Task: structure prediction
Amino acid sequence: MGARETVYLAGGCFWGMQKYFDQFDGILETEVGYANGPDKAPTYKEVCADSGHAETLRIVYDPEKIPFGKLLDDYFLVIDPLSVNRQGHDEGIQYRTGIYYTNDSQKAEALAYAAALEEKLGAKIAVEILPLGNFFPAEEYHQKYLDKNPGGYCHIPASYFSREKKD
Result:
């Protein structure tokens, strides 16, 4: 087995984020959940009532197959980095964007990426770059939701779900 690293990405609705990232070679596992809110496992209903948690995707990846920089490229392709607490038609604090890192190299790379993007856009981005504070797995019915419910709403265009096929 190769190397394993974990990062947590909040990018609006976590259903589409999971479907999108599951397609890439080097993604070993994904799980949707709630991150960086109070230290109490919330229910989906509590998250939707502004518990303070962000809908987040836990990604375990092999950095030799998919470097962190490519994860960032893929992430920024499917979010609006200037939007505050909103992606697509989803609005609220749980839909905020964030990169919740688990090591110093992820932190450094994410900060450098954000600085370059802000320079290019000429504006400050609304993506939080913070250490992971906590993560609580979402209820089972949310896991791989768009595989179970292909017609489910997502701000990510369906064509993006087949950009890259895994080996």
Notes: The chain has a mean pLDDT of 95. The longest helix spans residues 104-121. The chain has one domain: 5-162. The helical segments are 14-21, 44-48, 68-77, 104-121, 145-148.
